TrEMBL record:
InterPro entries in the cross-refs: UROD/MetE-like_sf (IPR038071)
Organism in which the protein naturally occurs: bioreactor metagenome
The name this protein goes by in its record: Uroporphyrinogen decarboxylase (URO-D) domain-containing protein
Length: 399
């Protein structure tokens, strides 16, 4: 690859894997694994806008990964790459995603999203994914539903060209990360999103879903039951398949609607289906990375129902020291610095906080380092703080 990306040695990758394995199994690793979540922020670190480089996938990837010349990462939790092919959506008539005024961040215009109507629950529940893919999709992407097939085909062709360009860019980014030995933590094809989260994110939207829980809870339950059945049937691998795979195996789950639920609702709409689907995989040796959102301290102890060491929990708004008191002996915590402190704190304040996290969480394992929320745009963090924090974290976490 152009741009001087160095080839990762196999031994470095294996060392990172071993450190992650040890940390998530409550053994002290030789080095606490250091990670980061980011989306569009790397462009600002490189001194360019996304718009300036987007025409050239090679240039985009090089600028996107330039910050790694100064900051060492052991891992990212997921496939760290550009998340939204907004031009592909726009080619099909959707205004849900757009390039923000900074010419770098792709923003989500939730007011432009199109959702299922109140009275369509029964039709949805007959075959949820048919409704999503054949009915709702055409509402969200109106150029697919034109009377003239030639026009619809032309829009689809333009969209696919945009997506191909976007996909090539991400392939180059992922190649560059691999060449730098940045390990992808979530590596097993087991993803659990609660059925209610799908309604919340894609089908009914935030406001409507929360209203539905009060006004038509039985309709919501019926829809969730059908979604869960379909999702279980679509899982590509059985627990016994993954049990045969050696090494660290990590699936994915995450919160959106969950942080708005009462404890009783959380148990019904997240914890019960999560355990039903995922516990057999945990028994087969799969760990699950929970991408937390909002505050969920009131439900965190539910994870003591899972096998010890099977959860890796990324915190957002909750105090990690309080979380550690409740589940620090049972779940691995992915935490260590807040994005707000990276933005507003002094360099010494940031380092002092990281040191406190290491001194508290690292002994005995069960701790991997990362910040509490993704770096999205230019002003999300002070670059001097980030370089200082990651230099300190990488050194202080060594035995």
């Amino acid at each position: 690859m152009k741009g001087g990306f160095r080839l990762a040695s196999l031994s470095l990758v294996q060392e990172t894997q071993q450190n992650l394995w040890d940390a998530t199994n409550f053994r002290e690793p030789k080095k606490v694994p250091v990670g980061m979540e980011f989306t569009y922020w790397p462009f600002s670190y490189a001194g360019v806008t996304y718009k300036e480089v987007a025409h050239d996938p090679q240039l985009t990837a090089e600028k996107y990964l330039q910050f790694l010349d100064d900051i060492h990462l052991d891992y990212t939790w997921g496939m760290a790459s550009l998340p939204n092919p907004y031009k592909a959506f726009q080619a099909l008539g959707s205004n849900s995603f757009f390039l923000a005024n900074d010419q770098t961040t792709v923003a989500h215009n939730q007011t432009a999203d199109v959702y299922m109507e109140d009275d369509e629950y029964d039709e949805f529940s007959k075959d949820p994914y048919y409704f999503i893919n054949e009915i709702l999709l055409k509402r969200k992407l109106p150029k697919l539903d034109q009377g003239r097939k030639e026009a619809a085909y032309g829009a689809l062709r333009q969209s696919m060209l945009e997506f191909r360009h976007f996909d090539l860019t991400n392939e180059l980014i992922l190649q560059g990360l691999a060449e730098r030995a940045v390990y992808t933590l979530v590596n097993a094809p087991i993803v659990f999103n609660s059925p209610l989260k799908l309604l919340f994110d894609k089908v009914r939207g935030m406001k409507n879903t929360l209203i539905d829980l009060r006004r038509r809870p039985d309709k919501v339950r019926a829809a969730c039951a059908q979604l869960l059945a379909a999702d279980k049937a679509a899982i590509p691998l059985k627990p016994e398949d993954l049990a045969k795979m050696p090494g660290l195996k990590v699936g994915l789950t995450g919160y959106h609607v969950e942080c708005f639920l009462s404890g009783k609702q959380f148990d019904e709409f997240f914890m019960k289906p999560f355990l039903e689907v995922c516990e057999p995989y945990m028994q087969a040796g799969v760990k699950f990375f929970l991408k937390g959102e909002g505050k969920f301290l009131n439900t965190i102890e539910r994870y003591r129902q899972t096998p010890k060491g099977s959860m890796i929990i990324m915190l957002e708004e909750d105090d990690p020291f309080e979380v550690h008191k409740l589940v620090g002996d049972w779940c691995t915590l992915a935490t260590g610095i807040s994005a707000s402190l990276l933005k507003y704190g002094t360099k010494q304040q940031c380092i002092d906080y990281v040191k406190k996290c290491y001194d508290t969480f690292a002994p005995g394992g069960g701790f991997i380092f990362m910040q509490d929320r993704p770096l999205l745009s230019a002003n999300d963090a002070n670059p001097e703080n980030i370089t200082a924090v990651y230099e300190f974290a990488n050194e202080y976490g060594k035995k």
